[in-house]
């Protein structure tokens, strides 16, 4: 009957749009979470490096705009 056919078509359209919406929503959510994690990791690494550099003793150079003295050879 035509009524059932239109109902099936309507449900098929709703189902497809719902599926596409969920794919889009989940995909965007994953992308947003990935981007947020990347930003947080970058900020965390920057903060850690800044703290390490600030904590390193540099007599007479604390708070001065001049670059710190050259670092000693890397110790293994």
Describe the structure.
The chain has 76 residues and is an all-alpha fold. It is 71% helix and 0% strand. It is built from 1 helix and no strands. It has one helix at residues 2-55. The longest helix has 54 residues, at 2-55. The mean pLDDT is 78.
Provide tags for this entry:
71% helix, 1 helix
Order of helices and strands: H
How much β-strand is present in the residues? under 5%
Shape: rod-shaped
Average predicted local confidence, pLDDT: 78
Q: Helicity range of the residues? A: over 70%
Number of DSSP-assigned strands: 0
What is the SS-derived class? mainly alpha
Discrete helix count: 1
Biggest pleated sheet? none
The gyration radius over C-alpha positions equals: 29 Å
Distance between the termini: 81 Å
pLDDT < 50 stretches: none
């Amino acid at each position: 009957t035509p009524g059932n056919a239109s109902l099936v078509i309507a449900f098929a359209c709703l189902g497809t749009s719902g599926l596409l919406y969920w794919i889009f929503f989940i995909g965007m959510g994953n992308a947003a979470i990935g981007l947020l994690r990347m930003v947080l990791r970058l900020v965390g690494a920057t903060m850690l490096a800044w703290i390490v550099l600030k904590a390193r003793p540099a007599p007479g150079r604390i708070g001065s705009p001049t670059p710190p003295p050259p670092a000693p050879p890397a110790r293994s």
